[in-house]
Amino acid sequence: MKNTLYLWRYYVLALLFLWPSAWWLACMGRGLRLRRPLLTWDMLLIAVMLVWYTGPDLVRQLRDAVNKSLINSGSQRQDIL
User: Fold this and answer.
1) Which of 43, 44, 49, 60 is the most buried (most CB within 10 A)?
2) Where are the beta strands (DSSP E) in 1-81?
């Protein structure tokens, strides 16, 4: 169950990324001139969604790496003393 929920958020992220991008490309294909802020807001939305969905995983991995390095450095200090 946890794996299903874990993958589900990436599917949502992919849809949120693909939908504005496909719409923007369709407008370009029809010859419509889009204003630049639209693309900027689209990219900002994508960046926020990436941080929101992957942020907890990245923070957890970083915390584990720091804890592991602290444990390793602590054991090396004890070996030296």
Assistant:
1) 49
2) none
Confidence category of residue 79, pLDDT binned at 50, 70, 90: very low
Angstrom distance (rounded) from CA 19 to CA 12: 11
What is the number of helices (H) and of strands (E) in the chain? 2, 0
Task: Indicate the range of 4-8, 28-32, 55-59 predicted with least confidence.
Answer: 4-8
Neighbours of 5 (CB within 10 A): 8
Q: What span, in angstroms and rounded, lies between the C-alpha atoms of 20 and 5?
A: 24
Pairwise CA distance, residues 18 & 23, whole Å: 8
